[in-house]
Amino acid sequence: MKRLLSCEFNMDTVRVELKFSYGSMVAIDTIAVKNEVADNMYHLTILSTMTRLHTPL
C-alpha cells in the first residue's frame, strides 16, 4: 500500500517534495504549476470573451 511519509516545501528548489513509504519521491515545481494556472486562466478568459461576442473560432 502506498503511504505518504512526508510533504515538505523546499525553499532552495521552490518545490513541494512528497516522500512515500516504498522509497519513491515526487517533487512538484510550484513555479511551473503557477505558470500553467495563469496560462489556462488567460485562455479561458479569451474563450469566454469570444463566446460572449459570438465570434467564430
Describe the structure.
- 40% of the residues lie in helices and 32% in strands.
- It is of the alpha+beta class and 57 residues long.
- The protein has one domain.
- A hairpin with a 4-residue loop joins strand 1 and strand 2.
- The longest helix is centred in the last third of the chain and has 23 residues, at 30-52.
- The radius of gyration is 18 Å and the shape is elongated.
- The mean pLDDT is 86.
How many structural domains does the protein architecture include?
Answer: 1
How many whole angstroms does the radius of gyration measure?
18 Å
The succession of helices and strands, N to C, reads EEEH
Q: Distance between termini?
A: 47 Å
How much strand content do the residues show?
25-35%
Strand adjacency order, main sheet? 1-2-3
Contiguous uncertain segments of 5+ residues: none
Topology:
Elements: E1 4-10, E2 15-20, E3 25-29, H1 30-52
Antiparallel strand pairs: 1-2, 2-3
Q: What labels describe this entry?
A:
single chain, alpha+beta, three-stranded antiparallel sheet, 3 strands
Q: Would you summarize the structure shown here?
A:
It is built from one helix and three strands, in the order βββα. By secondary structure, it is α+β, with helices and mostly antiparallel strands. The protein has one domain.
